[in-house]
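Example for tutorial group B:
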């Protein structure tokens, strides 16, 4: 790969603790030896064979790297360096240590509308920069929206993970089915041409969650979630949106539109009144006389949200994600009291076990599929080897037959050569006899001529 340093990354960086992992990548904290600056090292496992499903293809790695090289924005993670060895490509990235936006909100358990717009404005700024370069992220979700430092009054948002990002080119129709089901746009579900508009749908889902703690399309199964998305089946449940302004709901409605052409663009979103104003508008009359209550994210919805997000993850889930899941469960256990709450916890435990079993079954199925694929490859190689051995035996037999034929021809040629020599000697003898006869006759004729004279 052009531009990738073919050196040992540990010559220049000290590797530290593991920060997380994905299906084919591991992220570790590292420190640059020359400057002492801390970064995040993302080890991407390379796909060794084009027919294999293990690892990331060269084309996909180069696409992610090319996009990261092109972008430079305060709300987007930056690429510092790139190394490559026989098994991995190592991206040295900006260290974003503030954790996920989802975790930050779950810890707070409440969020005002003004705080939501502060976070959302940063997300929109980052996406606006990407879209200005015709880059679609295609995987916008709370897990990929990080905080640079959560222990400051106004945390800065950082968009991460450009593994499935694409540069949209005019005239090139692009279709794919990827992303996280809960956040994908209808055109992805329906395998239709994709563009920058898919990111705007994801922003609509994220905004819905920021304001309510509930997910608009999440179903009991992945299929139900995708069906809800395709049908744009959602509503503003009064239980979660009782204190939400009409401007905020209008913002969400203009993003959760099935037709991509009718969906708000990033420019439209930044110009929307809800984003532009500092103070919330459309406050209900009864709210103007009292301090608005802080809306609390529903812990039951957070729990469901976490379980579903884990069940849709790749087979090798990360420790950090299970740690977050455990923290949410502890908060639920602390908040729920009494017999009724204990009964709910019992049911939730059953759901957790089901979700974890589902993850295990997915992993087991994945390994089984890989084993079957390897077994099929080995069987094919064995058959090809047997064919090669059969051809080799056939060639050897044909060579022996040709050798025998050649020897027979050689013997026959020898016999013919001997006969030719015998015939040649006979011919020489006959020729000498004829020549002698001719001389004799000539001599007699000469004698006769002399005597007659």
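The residue assignment follows.
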């Amino acid at each position: 790969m052009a531009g990738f340093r073919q050196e040992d990354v540990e010559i220049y960086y000290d590797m530290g603790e593991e920060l997380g992992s994905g299906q084919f990548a591991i992220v570790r904290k590292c420190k640059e030896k020359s400057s002492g600056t801390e970064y995040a090292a993302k080890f991407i496992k390379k796909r060794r064979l084009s027919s294999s499903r293990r690892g990331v293809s060269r084309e996909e790695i180069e696409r992610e790297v090319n996009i990261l090289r092109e972008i430079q924005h305060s709300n987007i993670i930056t690429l510092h360096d790139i190394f490559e060895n026989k098994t991995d490509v190592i991206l040295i990235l900006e260290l974003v240590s503030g954790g996920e936006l989802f975790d930050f909100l779950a810890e707070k358990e409440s969020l005002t509308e003004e705080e939501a717009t502060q976070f959302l404005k940063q997300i929109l700024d980052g996406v606006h920069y990407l879209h200005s370069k015709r880059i679609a992220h295609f995987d916008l979700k709370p897990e990929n929206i990080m905080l640079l430092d959560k222990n400051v009054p106004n945390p800065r948002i950082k968009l991460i993970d450009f593994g499935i990002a694409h540069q949209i080119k005019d005239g090139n129709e692009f279709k794919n089915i990827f992303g996280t089901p809960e956040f994908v746009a209808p055109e992805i579900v329906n395998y239709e041409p994709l563009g920058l508009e898919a990111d705007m749908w994801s922003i609509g889902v994220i905004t819905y969650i920021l304001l309510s703690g509930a997910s608009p399309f999440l179903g009991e199964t992945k299929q139900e979630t995708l069906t809800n998305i395709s049908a744009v089946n959602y509503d503003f449940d009064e239980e979660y949106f009782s204190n939400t302004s009409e401007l905020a709901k209008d913002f969400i409605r203009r993003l959760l539109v099935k037709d991509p052409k009718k969906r708000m663009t990033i420019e439209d979103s930044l110009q929307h009144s809800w984003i532009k104003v500092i103070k919330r508008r459309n406050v209900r009359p009864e709210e103007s006389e009292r301090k608005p209550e802080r809306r609390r994210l529903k812990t039951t919805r957070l729990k469901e949200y976490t379980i579903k997000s884990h069940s849709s993850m790749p087979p090798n889930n990360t420790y950090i994600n299970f740690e977050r899941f455990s923290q949410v469960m502890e908060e639920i256990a602390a908040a729920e009291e009494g017999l009724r709450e204990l009964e709910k916890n019992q049911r939730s435990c059953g759901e957790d076990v089901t979700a974890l079993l589902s993850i295990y079954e997915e992993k087991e199925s994945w390994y089984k599929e890989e084993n079957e694929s390897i077994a099929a490859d080995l069987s094919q190689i064995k058959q090809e080897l047997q064919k090669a051995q059969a051809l080799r035996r056939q060639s050897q037999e044909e060579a022996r037959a040709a050798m025998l034929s050649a020897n027979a021809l050689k013997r026959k040629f020898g016999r013919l050569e001997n006969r030719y020599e015998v015939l040649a000697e006979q011919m020489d003898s006959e020729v000498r006899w004829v020549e002698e006869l001719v001389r004799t006759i000539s001599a007699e004729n000469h004698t006769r001529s002399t005597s007659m004279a």
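The beta strands are 13-21, 25-32, 38-45, 79-84, 88-94, 135-136, 145-147, 157-159, 166-167. Compare this with the pattern of hydrophobic and polar residues in the output above.
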